[in-house]
């Protein structure tokens, strides 16, 4: 199969640095949220400084600067889906970022997991295409141990209740069939998302640090799909969690 043909050493025809040169004062830590309304409100309420526009034919995608207790952060809205998400992370890395905190919602494959629960994905099933361009073919990929330690330490220190476990990263949420659900649950998956396995693979290939977490939303473990509206989730709490992670990164890595 084509996805098994991983080219680890081939020269890249198009490189992110051809489009975006490193900026001396670009933040080393990026917070990338999939929550569009949260992102827009936070930027507006805090009158954030725009650093750069990672625009495409889809339109603008601005990176903003935010100062958190002396920590310089980059804030961006992450695009949904592995290819677009990883492409933006590539560009942020080219500009100078090294640590990437990503957060959004995930579905659950276990009905006992409540909505609104903070989740650490420790392993991801690679049911998407992007990761195979960054790591050799395999069914699963794990989070970097140092990143996992940072996430766990953050949540424990700040008394944040959390779940952790395997996620199913898929490109096609409208093709999450009953049979696939059973197979993934039997394989140990608790969650389902669209980007995590690609983020893990990309971060390992580029030798940068990724810290993904979720807030649980819809439930697949039912006779009928349970949407569990996002309005029932305390989304602003996720941003506070991201800030806690950033502080833990600085404490552990001594980032200025």
Automatic annotation (TrEMBL):
UniProt cross-references to SUPFAM superfamilies, sorted A to Z: Purine and uridine phosphorylases (SSF53167)
Gene Ontology biological-process entries: purine nucleoside catabolic process
Listed GO MF terms: purine-nucleoside phosphorylase activity; uridine phosphorylase activity
Catalyzed reactions: uridine + phosphate = alpha-D-ribose 1-phosphate + uracil
Upper classification of the organism: Bacteria, Bacillati, Bacillota, Bacilli, Lactobacillales
Any matching Pfam family: PNP_UDP_1
EC class name: transferase
UniProt domain Nucleoside phosphorylase: residue ranges: 29-249
Coiled-coil boundaries: none
Protein source organism: Companilactobacillus allii
Any single GO CC term annotated in Swiss-Prot or TrEMBL for this entry: cytosol
Entry protein name: Uridine phosphorylase
E.C. number: 2.4.2.3
